[in-house]
Amino acid sequence: MRVRNKPWAKDFIKDHSEYIVDNPEQWKGKWSNRFNKNQPIHVEIGTGKGQFIVEMAREHPEINFLGIEIQETVIAIALKKVVASELPNLQMVHTDGAGIDTFFDEHEIDTIYLNFSDPWPKKRHAKRRLTSPKFLDSYKKVLKKDAPIVFKTDNRGLFEYSIITFNNYGMYFDLLSLDLHNSEYIEDNIETEYEHKFSAKGPIYKVIAYFNKNKED
Amino acid sequence: MRVRNKPWAKDFIKDHSEYIVDNPEQWKGKWSNRFNKNQPIHVEIGTGKGQFIVEMAREHPEINFLGIEIQETVIAIALKKVVASELPNLQMVHTDGAGIDTFFDEHEIDTIYLNFSDPWPKKRHAKRRLTSPKFLDSYKKVLKKDAPIVFKTDNRGLFEYSIITFNNYGMYFDLLSLDLHNSEYIEDNIETEYEHKFSAKGPIYKVIAYFNKNKED
Prior knowledge:
- Two copies of one chain form a homodimer.
- Helix content of chain A is 29%, strand content 19%.
- Chain A contains seven helices and eight strands; from the N terminus they run αββαβαβαβαβαβαβ.
- An eight-stranded mixed beta sheet of chain A has the order 1-4-3-2-5-6-8-7, with helices on both faces.
- The radius of gyration of chain A is 17 Å and the shape is globular.
- The A-B interface holds A 133, 156, 159-160, 163-165, 167-169, 171-174, 176-179, 205, 213, 217 and B 133, 156, 159-160, 163-168, 171-174, 176-179, 205, 213, 217.
């Protein structure tokens, strides 16, 4: 998602350091200290304008949520929602998802959400896709052994790529939906801003994938 | 596919035993003897009215093709096309796909095609789906080690089920398309009768899956 830079963004972020971190390495292994309660941590990489993670945090007070976003104006827009929500179980992280294993301890995270990630459609940019094998290496390090990646997208090419990549990496699929909004799983679905806008134009794809087989077939 | 029984079917099959087999166990390990040349064997399970396999055989004289179909009238319709084609590299097998490992030797086959298989949508019928784990057990036995299953369907539920099943079985994906007819792979695509009729109504899904990892990611 590209948005025009907003002049107020930088100051707004500075003024709300109780809800946002821009030095994530310093919190490695200590993320629970950012929250009231010591409870499982779920992370959304590329949290965009924040609708998904704010709703998730509201619905799941038993989980601590971290939203990672690199674009300053975008995370400032999300931060507005976070500040207004006054939720004790929601924090923003202003950084790049690429360094995730530099600012989380091994097995510190209970779930990673990837929602409508940049498809990087050109083949020479495949390594930048958040579902490429190098990213999977880092997710595997920071996720608990029985913890999933939950991935949604409307981009067919990115989903095809990701299913092949997850599968050939040796990950196990639990849920797979090729038309989430016309499936039984829609009941529990929490939408992103983008999803709300684009789900009428074509199918939303979703997969839940694990690095370890924790279920019997 | 259900079709009304045709009275001519039984006699037509009997009269063309040079193109059709109804005692497949007797050909186990000797399928090459049914053909002019000793060359790789590709098998379509559930060959329906035969358009796919006849066109494949015409385009690939370097491969021997076997079309398996259980319904008498349906295979008789396919057999009409086979007889008319006079192709030396195409044979029909009137039997059920379930017994495939009783009438092929280990590693006798170079490719299995599953095209628009019966989706058996009820969960209690999942074991009847041609992509269920029990079928995969038998395919693995009869396929060569580096040989693929090539699967096409327009049935979303069956494709979701099959991708999860292949994945949890430990298979590797090569090609995956979630909209074959709007993809780069359409050029080489050979349609079935059913596909020709239904591809305008929704996406055709396709995957090529291997039991062994024969490529580097």
